[in-house]
């Protein structure tokens, strides 16, 4: 006689599968940044290395913003789990705004670098600055995936697809968002202290 899974068991199994797939994706992203970090360390012996430039203020501000966005996403997930849907929507919207502000300040950081004549390519470029641009561009590209995921979560939450018993979409999106936040904080601290 066949054992039929209950709805809860099926949801739990589905959740484990999706979380495992997300972990594989995040590990592959780690490998990309590990490669960039390794290249950065190996390149420090080059004669065109610039170690004495100051990190643009916009990148410092964006780091604070991305940390705050992780807090608001955490609060959103907890609010939805407790059944406070309007509070959850408020924190999801706050996370989206902070995510967009993070990207804006990242591009402002590029402008600050350009104004200091620190460019990624050309005769006046240096390998250290080129790595900083690579770190930021690759991170922002991955963060766009987080923004899209967050927009889907906001839409689904608006359509009342989440409740205290069904939060898989929010959990997956929050995992990825916190992961991207962690990656940026790691890159920022690495670049700030290891240049």
Automatic annotation (TrEMBL):
SUPFAM superfamilies: Cytochrome c oxidase subunit III-like
Annotated InterPro entries: Cyt_c/ubiquinol_Oxase_su3 (IPR024791), Cyt_c_oxidase-like_su3 (IPR000298), Cyt_c_oxidase_su3-like_sf (IPR035973), Cyt_c_oxidase_su3_a-hlx (IPR013833)
Membrane topology reported for the UniProt record: Multi-pass membrane protein
Compartments, as annotated in UniProt: Cell membrane
Keyword Transmembrane helix: yes
Coiled-coil portions: none
Keywords: Cell membrane, Membrane, Transmembrane, Transmembrane helix
Domain Heme-copper oxidase subunit III family profile: 1-195
Segments traversing the membrane: 21-43, 55-76, 88-110, 130-155, 176-194
Gene3D superfamilies assigned: Cytochrome c oxidase, subunit III, four-helix bundle (1.20.120.80)
Pfam families per record: COX3
Presence of keyword Chloroplast: no
UniProt similarity note: Belongs to the cytochrome c oxidase subunit 3 family.
Listed name of the protein: Heme-copper oxidase subunit III
Taxonomic source organism: Flavobacterium celericrescens
